[in-house]
Amino acid sequence: MSARVVLPTRLTGRFLLLSHNFCSPTTKPYKYTRMSTTLPHFASGEVVKGFGRGSKTLGTPTANLEQCVVDKLPADFKTGIYFGWAQVNDGPVYEQVTSIGWNPYFRNQTKSMETHVIHSFTEDFYGSNLKVILVGYIRDEMDFKGLEELKAAIANDIEVSKQELLRPEFRKYKTDEFFCQNPESLNNGKMNGNA
Ligand SMILES: Cc1cc2nc3c(=O)[nH]c(=O)nc-3n(C[C@H](O)[C@H](O)[C@H](O)COP(=O)(O)O)c2cc1C
To answer: Which domain holds residue 162?
Structure first.
């Protein structure tokens, strides 16, 4: 897969600002990485139960997408932390951060795709349909010395996501027609691809 770090000179000042603002003590500064072959990535599926650590242990609830959605990720799809947009059933479209991989801190045996929707929901939404568009890549999944470091990294990811989604090239996906489509029409509710 081709991955290219883009540091446009006209954004040098901004990059320095990002480096300053969006660097938790344990992760490298965020740098925009263009993944032209795999992003944007569109996925839709049912929300299933994970280990339940998101809310309880990390204070960041995550919605786990059903395994068939994870299994359909393209072979060259890089694991790591992504940002983009999400919608539960036919509700509003919110900002999101998604972790794809094996959660090295918890040493999971199964690859998962877990989305933190940046919104305070009053109830769990297991069994609901979740649509996500991944538009940008933040970093690799990492192991950490302790839980506080993982929590700090996730908090940083959320800030990066919010900031990056203000950019017009990412913001435009909030109103993508994908979010208007019936999940059943998306390949039996399990759509996966970047077409
Ligand atoms: C934005 C974000 C970043 C994450 N980064 C990491 C990471 O670097 N390393 C890791 O092991 N897990 C990472 N995770 C995954 C969490 O460990 C996982 O979502 C949490 O354990 C909840 O999983 P569960 O729903 O299966 O209980 C991240 C999750 C999110 C939402």
So the answer is: 38-193
